[in-house]
Amino acid sequence: MPPSPAKMTPKKKNKTLPPRKGSLTLQDATVEKSPLGTKTFNLTLGTGGDYDAGKSPRFDNQADSPDFSAGRRDPKAAAAEQAKLVAEMLGQEVSAGDIAARYEMSDSSDDELDELMAESKAKATDEGQDAKFTGDFDWNSQMGPMVETLQKENSSMKVELDKKKQQVKKLGIMLNALEPIPGVDAEKLLSVLDERGEPVHSDMRDVKIIQLSKKVRNLQFELNKQKNMNKNAEEAILQLDQELEKKQTEIDTLATPQARAAIMKTMVGGIGALDNDPNFGATGGGGGSNKQTKELQKHLDDMRHKFEILKEKNRVLEHKLIQEVGGEGPTAEKMSKIMGEGWKGRAQQITLLKTKMKRLEANAKTGGMMESRGSSRSTTAQQRVAANNLRRDVDFKAQQDLNEMEKMRQLGVEQLSKAHEEMKEKLERTEKRYTSAKVRVGCLEQDNAKMRDGMKVFVGKASNDDKLVDMLKQEAHELRKKLKRNQERETKMQGERETMRGEGKEVELLRQQLSQFKNQNSHQERIINQLRADMHRMRNPGSSKKKAVGPRRTVDAVELSENDRPNSHDRK
């Protein structure tokens, strides 16, 4: 194995012992560490002194045997023992002291060996790999569950991806179906609606739509206002009708013969007169408690007070009526005259006759000057003086004022009639305009409702599209994250695979070294067997020739074994 830069050469403590016949000891042992964390043991065997049967390793073929075949072993058993030894050195957790005691290594190399074992164990733990390894490396047993898990995740992600593609396709069809209506520019409408922004040259049709919308809103406000006013007026009319019905009911109640009789009896005989009245008892409840009696007494006092007031008014009216009508006879006849058409009272007739007499007297005195009013008519001086005096009369001035007021009244009536006709025509035109405007408002309300429904649908679809797009973006982001994690996991697995491939190369190198060690051990066993045969011949000498040749051959064998022994420095 080529030298490594991270190689740590322990301090060696070589033992130079006198050779002992028939024994092999571990003279030198070195440990090398490769950059990949593997270990390489270099062992040097040879003869040594100070043999201790309790400490030195004993081999199975060390037994005394008269022939060469006694120390030989089965090649399969030897290979199994060598594989077991390598497995213990590579996989089992064997301390450095045990290795040193087993192979008689020096104490100076124990600490370094322990450090190398600890570093190798820590690196194997950090990489998540099992420190023990026996037999050939099986990729399926190590990576099978992980590969199956990744395959399942990949298949599930493919299914999800197909579903997402179908959803995207459906959403694309929906977006194509939700294209904006031709002729409606939403940006222009927004720019027109935004009055606080800068002025933008927009389409007159859009401006007209906005103006009509505002007009419809104002008309709707006025319409609601008028509806509220009409509602309040109707409520007020209903209240007044209820009050009128209530008053009419009271008047009808007071106008009944029973009420009048009760009032008359009260006026004539007091409250005691009503005690024997069955109608009053039925009306009043047949003599209730004191509280009801007090309430009835109070009500009776009020009615009596009202009756006295009405009686006084009736008396005054009768007196005025008699003064007005005059004459004698029954009152019914007088009242029938009053109810006739064109009737005038006596006082009014007297006043009119007095005025007529006064006017005729003035005309007689003035000779008709006051009635002619500037017409050419011959008058005397006396008539002119009488006319001047008449002008100073208060009644005449009052009559003139009345005449002027009558003229002004007639003129005013004519003007009011003319204005009334004009206002009536204007009202008719206004009613026609109001009717047409009402119809137009109804049409605009319908159009506005349709437009609002369309805008609501459009805005709702736009909001749903935004939500769907956001959800798809979020799902796409999550899928990217998953894909990134899978890529990172795959990268990590690829790095682990490369690391395992490197370890496989190291295993191949160790196997090559093991084969070299096996060849070296077989060569050393042959040498040992040869030496044992020589020792056996030395112990059982035959002829003098054999005695002379034996030691020389033994020395040559020892020299040959020393020459064939691998040099540790060369291997380093």
Radius of gyration over C-alpha positions, nearest whole angstrom: 72 Å
Taking the alpha carbons of the first and last residues, their distance comes to 8 Å
Total of DSSP H or I helical runs spanning 4+ residues? 16
* Major sheet: 2 strands, antiparallel
What is the beta-strand fraction? under 5%
Q: Report the order of strands and helices.
A: EEHHHHHHHHHHHHHHHH
- Main-sheet strand order equals 1-2
Mean pLDDT: 68
How many domains make up the 3D coordinates?
3
Shape: rod-shaped
The helix-and-strand class reads mainly alpha
Residue stretches low in confidence (pLDDT < 50, at least 5 long) are 1-23, 48-71, 105-109, 280-288, 543-572
Number of strands: 2
Helix proportion = over 70%
InterPro entries: CCDC13
Region (Disordered): 1-80, 484-504, 532-572
Keywords: Coiled coil
Coiled coil: 209-250, 293-320, 413-440
